[in-house]
Amino acid sequence: MMNKISISQAWSYATSFFAGQGANHAIALIGVGIFLPLILQFALGGGAMMTDPMSFAAGGGVAAMGGLMMLTSLVNYILQTGSYFASWRIGLSNGSEPLGSALTFGLIAALPTLLLAIVVVLVLVLIGFVVFGSALAPMMMGGQPSAAGGGLMLLLMLLFFLFMIWLAARFCCTGPVMADQRTYNVLTGLGESWRMTAASQWKIFAYFLLIGVALVVLLMILGMIVGVSMFAGGAPGAGSIIGLVIGALLLSIPMAYLQVGVPAGIYRALGGRSQADVFA
Q1: Are 175 and 106 spatial neighbours (Cβ–Cβ below 8 Å)?
Q2: Which end of the chain is more exposed for a tag (fewer CB within 10 A), N or C?
Q3: pTM here?
Q4: Cα separation of 145 and 137, whole Å?
Q5: d(Cα 214, Cα 221) in Å, to the nearest integer?
Q6: Rounded mean pLDDT of the chain?
Q7: CA triple 85-258-155, angle to 5 deg
Q8: What DSSP character marks residue 271?
């Protein structure tokens, strides 16, 4: 049976998801998902590039950094996504699964998710090329952009953006389903999420839009605060780099909790059953 969602109940479940296991969630989301990738980034040359980019470029570091950045991005994706799966597993098992076991599950579950992400990106690039390529064709052939062409491009971008939000609404329970069932089968998670969200897809869609608007406002405020603090002392230097890192952390930590809590709350509000009857 497909249940209809209550937005207030979903948000309540999202905010209470981390209660009772706060330390384990913090180790997974902040330690493994944020600090470990940050340390890895600096260890592989990111620190040298940020603090002294001219010397780094003169020493031939830019060419080597290209390959390292690709490798680091893949590892960071696995660490970050793995931390989400671990957090879902911790919360949905009500802490009955040890932290180490949850982290192991999360990191392994991130691997098939990475393959899915690659496929999704390729498909979206193809769709974007077909949709936007036709609108940009006159400009690419040397023609002058028209008001109608610009309006069409904006409309297509808006529709594509709304389509992506709708897809996110339909597949938002994929991670919680996989974590709850402790399965590495992404197709199982996708199919169950599609089934669970069918009756409430437009409510979830509106829910995501509201969260998106709130995030844009908060990001603008945070961006202004970080920008002022970085350049208040004059030219950018070591202090501005530290300010940038702090700003990134201030953004990354709540975003990590949001990306875990919101899908978990929706999953529970839609009647997803876990090993615990309620979130502790």
Answers
A1: no
A2: N
A3: 0.82
A4: 10
A5: 11
A6: 82
A7: 110
A8: T
- In the chain, where does DSSP find H-type helix? 7-16, 22-26, 36-41, 47-51, 53-58, 61-92, 99-140, 147-170, 174-181, 186-197, 201-231, 238-269
Q: What's the token pair of residue 92?
A: 């949905």
Q: How far apart are CA 160 and CA 132, in angstroms?
A: 10
Reported as a single tens digit per residue, the pLDDT across 92-115 is 998 899 999 999 999 999 999 999
Tokens of 171: 């597949």
C-alpha to C-alpha distances, 115 to 56, 90, 121, nearest whole angstrom:
33, 24, 10
Are the CB atoms for 50 and 241 separated by under 8 Å?
Answer: yes
Tokens of 63: 């060419």
* DSSP assigned state of 17: T
Secondary structure class of 236 (helix, strand, coil): coil
Residue whose pair of structure tokens reads 């089934």 in the numeric block: 195
Place of tokens 């392994």: 108
- Lookup: tokens for 96: 């009955």
Dist. CA 142–CA 144, nearest whole Å: 7
Residues counted in the chain: 280
Mean pLDDT along residues 182-204: 95
